[in-house]
Design a protein that fits this description.
Its cofactor is FMN. The chain is of the alpha/beta class. The chain is built from 14 helices and 9 strands. The protein binds flavin mononucleotide. Flavin mononucleotide (FMN) binds next to helix 9.
Length: 305
């Protein structure tokens, strides 16, 4: 589809402002970048790290959309107010996080298990802010069949965009994504929809595009983390020539400046290789060697920096 919109998914602990800016400068830019979840307190206050991530001066030239993870109306609305003061016009609600400690507190994908409470929450937040509210959701807690009633609820609200990762919380990141549920949503819902999930290669993207040629938007997470050239291949653009190695070098320099502590920098850098392994299984042995490095010096030597 021409004019499709492409988003970078929020990945907490990974796609922070340093990563987003570096990706944006080196590779085919995304139309928007979702900021990993924020957890404002009841007054809307953010931690120092989270505030740094949303400050406009740390996101210059990028279209970024902040996300809030909560099941408490006041945290959402006061958090949204802080974001509005910073100049944001859209805030995203996280109904997708499958992590056990989040789900057990009825937040993220866990919120999908209490439809009545979710409705009250949506009533309050939609009448309490002028900001656009988009939602990123899974399709249920335990069973994909939960999505029908949930979609009926979503359709009652002026959600600016509903981003669907078609897995339940229980499925975590395993098994096949339920394209049939995304198709069902396309048939039933009048909301603007965006697809997200398991597009790691150009071939997988093309298969998805073939199945959903009219989908207006798609969000990439791990696929672009592991292969930052994926979007330029999809769009067939040739302008930028940076490589995966260039990205790793820039991150190596930037995180030393930002984080300082050598072991923290090293573990942050190694994490990118986890996603590389998903996209480049043939490089597993090389990646294993990189995981084994114990100092930044060793890491730099292995990567020929
Ligand atoms: C390490 C990690 C952190 C994530 N953090 C967030 C987050 O902050 N907010 C969110 O909505 N989803 C988060 N997700 C989910 C991703 O945004 C995305 O929905 C998921 O990876 C599926 O898309 P993909 O198959 O393209 O990666 C995270 C996923 C991972 C693996």
């Amino acid at each position: 589809m021409e004019n499709r919109t492409f988003y970078f998914a929020p990945l907490e602990g990974i796609t922070d402002y340093i990563y987003r800016n570096t990706y944006h400068r080196l590779f085919e830019p995304m139309d928007a970048y979702f900021i990993p979840f924020l957890t404002p307190d009841k007054n809307g206050k953010l931690s120092r790290r989270q505030r740094r991530d949303v400050l406009p001066e740390n996101n210059e030239g990028l279209h970024v959309i902040p996300q809030i993870l909560t099941n408490k109306e006041e945290e959402f609305l006061n958090g949204a107010r802080q974001l509005e003061e910073l100049g944001y016009r859209e805030v995203n609600l996280n109904l997708g996080c499958p992590s056990r400690c989040v789900v057990s507190k009825g937040r993220g994908a866990g919120f999908l298990g209490d439809v009545e409470k979710l409705k009250r929450f949506l009533d309050t937040i939609f009448s309490g802010t002028r900001m656009r509210i988009s939602i990123k959701t899974r399709i249920g807690v335990e069973d994909p069949e939960e999505f029908g009633p949930l979609l009926e609820v979503f359709d009652l609200y002026p959600i600016s965009e509903l981003i669907i990762h078609p897995r339940t919380a229980k499925e975590f990141y395993t098994g096949t994504v339920h394209w049939e549920i995304y198709r069902f949503a396309r048939e039933k819902s009048s909301l603007p929809l965006c697809y997200n999930g398991d597009l790691f290669t150009l071939e997988e993207y093309e298969a998805w595009d073939y199945a959903f040629p009219k989908s207006r938007a798609v969000m990439f997470g791990r696929g672009v983390l592991g292969d930052p050239l994926l979007l330029s291949r999809i769009r067939r653009t040739k302008g930028k020539t940076a490589t995966w190695e260039d990205l790793q070098y820039e991150l190596y320099v930037a995180y030393q400046k930002e984080i300082g502590n050598e072991q923290h920098v090293l573990s942050r850098l190694k994490e990118f290789w986890t996603y590389r392994a998903l996209c480049r299984p043939e490089e597993r042995e090389k990646i294993r060697q990189i995981y084994r490095t114990e100092t930044l010096q060793e890491y730099a030597k292995r990567l020929h920096f």
